[in-house]
Amino acid sequence: MVWMNDEDDWSQRGDRGPTPGRMLYWLATAVAALIVIFAVADFFISWAQGEPILRIVAFVAAAVVWLIGRACRSFGA
């Protein structure tokens, strides 16, 4: 069974340069990761204080930021 063809390998494509879409994607991914890290840290801090609260809005916001970056990557030439 073949897992990857030469057609699927991104390193074999001619468009290796950084495009604005890819740069915005990685920026959005980094911002989303920071949001998740701070949300998890806030959960553990509130857990240590006796009231563990998981802020779902932060995770939804991180998902939205990441999806916007994903859209920028697919629309960026």
Structure explained in plain terms:
This protein has two helices and no strands. It is mostly helical and 77 residues long. Helix 1 (20-48) runs antiparallel to helix 2 (56-75). The chain is elongated.
Residue-averaged pLDDT = 85
Structural category: mainly alpha
Report, as a whole number of angstroms, the end-to-end distance: 33 Å
Q: State the shape.
A: elongated
Order of helices and strands: HH
Strand composition percent? under 5%
How many separate helices?
A: 2
How much helix is in the residues?
A: 55-70%
Q: Which stretches of 5+ consecutive residues score pLDDT under 50? A: none
- Domain count, please report it: 1
The radius of gyration over CA amounts to 18 Å
Strand segment tally? 0
Largest beta-sheet characterization: none
Ordered list of secondary-structure elements with their pairings:
Elements: H1 20-48, H2 56-75
Main features:
64% helix; 2 helices; mainly alpha; 77 residues
Please outline what is shown here.
This protein has 77 residues and is mostly helical.
